[in-house]
Structure formats: structure tokens, C-alpha cells
Amino acid sequence: MKFEIKGTFKQQGEDQGYTKLLNAENEKMAREKIYSLFGGKQKIARRNITISEIKEAKKWNKHFQKDK
After folding, report:
1. Based on CB atoms within 10 Å of each CB, which residue in 12, 22, 35, 45 is the most buried?
2. Burial class (CB in 10 A: 0-12, 13-18, 19+), 10
3. Can you spell out the DSSP letters for 10-41?
4. 41-65 tens-digit pLDDT
């Protein structure tokens, strides 16, 4: 399934917004992928990542890159 996830993360004391589109089996797995992506690439702790919305995406927006 395709999910669109929106939220904020705190980096260097500032809140920054994000919107990600990715493939996951279910909503729980989509949540874990977000934590993994930000933790692995940007070294952000889970406690600094806020997920405000997770919804199933009907189609991919051409402005977003698909998750590999």
C-alpha cells in the first residue's frame, strides 16, 4: 500500500515539517519506516519525530520521489 505521512521533526532546536510518500504493508509499518528513515539518514531520535497524519495515498504525486 502507499501512504502519505505528514509531521514535524526537531533538528538543532528547530521544528521542521515534512511530507513523505512511501510503500508499506500497513500503517504501523509506515510509521516504523519514517522513524527509520529520519534516524538513519539524519540521526534524529524517535522522541524528536512527530507524526501528525498518516493516510493511504490514492496515487503518487509527481513531485514526490517513491521510496526505494
Report:
1. 22
2. middle
3. EETTEEEEEEEEEE-SSHHHHHHHHHHHHHHH
4. 889 999 999 999 999 987 666 555 5
Rounded to two decimals, the pTM is 0.78
Q: How many CA atoms lie within 13 A of 27 on its CB side?
A: 7
Q: Which domains does the chain have, with CATH numbers?
A: 2-55 (3.10.20.10)
C-alpha cell, 20: 513523505
Task: Write out the three cell numbers for 53.
Answer: 497524519
Alpha-carbon gap, residue 36 to 39, rounded angstroms = 5
